[in-house]
Specification:
Elements lengths: L2 H19 L4 H10 L4 H11 L1 H10 L1 H6 L1 H61 L13 H17 L4 H12 L4 H29 L8 H16 L1 H7 L2 H21 L2
Helix pairs in contact: 1-2, 1-10, 1-11, 2-3, 3-6, 3-9, 3-10, 4-9, 4-10, 6-7, 6-8, 6-9, 6-12, 7-8, 7-9, 8-9
């Protein structure tokens, strides 16, 4: 194990912990990979694969809420799969030049979404208090197509870059679904895990078939995976000891700093 492995393992642990608290771990793993000399496209693909174990661990943690909202979770699967593949395809088809041009804006958007996440959560709680609904109540059938459409768009963004995608989903589903906040948050975890999962598979398959192209770096993804898995599980205990705003602020500042760095280095 060399110094780079330790660096990536630590980045994965912190990213997994941030995802456990509020989401936005990409804002830590992505710049860590850039610092090792990867291109933005390769760093993004590797980050997507590296953080996947933490997302899977989160699904297990939310199994109780997902049992109550299993019907809604089921109808989110197809748009999450299609959107994740589409986002990954767009990333690889448009190439590193386009991604490098838009990533500063994406970083700023992700950082802003991370900062407003507590406001979204409080708004959803107030809305739920005004319109109480049983945890097992079925969602309004009239909202099916809007739910599928919004899920598809957010999944495309998650497959392409993904920082802040879960927060967008949380706010949109709070309007469209009559479910408790904990259930909506569990659905968010499913959507991001599935879209990132199929995007990761897409990156892996294409890298295996075309090993010379700029994309997923398996060697760097392994320590990131290990760190994210530990962060997604053990990091929850750390998160409970720290104020959530501190983790959000740290990730947001990293995202803003890297965005300005990428603009200035051009």
């Amino acid at each position: 194990m060399n110094r780079s492995d330790l660096w990536l393992g630590m980045a994965g642990f912190l990213a997994g912990s941030v995802n456990a608290a509020a989401g936005g771990g990409t804002l830590l793993s992505f710049p860590s990979l850039l610092a090792l000399g990867m291109s933005p496209l390769a760093a993004n693909a590797t980050s997507t694969v590296g953080l996947l174990p933490g997302s899977v661990a989160s699904i297990f943690a939310y199994r109780r809420e997902l049992t109550a909202a299993r019907a809604d979770a089921g109808r989110l699967l197809m748009p999450s799969i299609v959107g994740g593949v589409a986002g990954a395809w767009l990333l690889l088809f448009l190439g590193d030049r386009v991604f490098a041009a838009v990533v500063p804006s994406l970083l700023l958007i992700g950082s802003a979404l991370l900062v407003v996440q507590p406001l979204v959560a409080r708004w959803l709680l107030r809305r739920a208090a005004r319109n109480p609904a049983p945890a097992a109540a079925p969602s309004n059938p009239s909202s099916t197509w809007p739910v599928l459409g919004v899920s598809l768009l957010v999944a495309i963004y998650a497959g392409y870059f993904g920082a802040g995608a879960g927060i967008v989903f949380l706010g949109a589903m709070g309007l469209l679904l009559t479910l408790p906040l904990s259930d909506v948050n569990a659905l968010k975890v499913v959507m991001t895990a599935v879209s990132n999962g199929v995007a990761a598979i897409t990156f892996a398959v294409l890298q295996i078939r075309h090993p010379g192209q700029d994309g997923l770096q398996f060697r760097a993804a392994l320590p990131l995976c290990a760190g994210a898995l530990l962060g997604g599980y053990l990091g929850v205990r750390l998160v409970r000891r720290l104020p959530p705003w501190a983790l959000r602020a740290f990730s947001a500042l990293v995202g803003v700093g890297i965005a300005f760095y990428m603009v200035l280095r051009k």
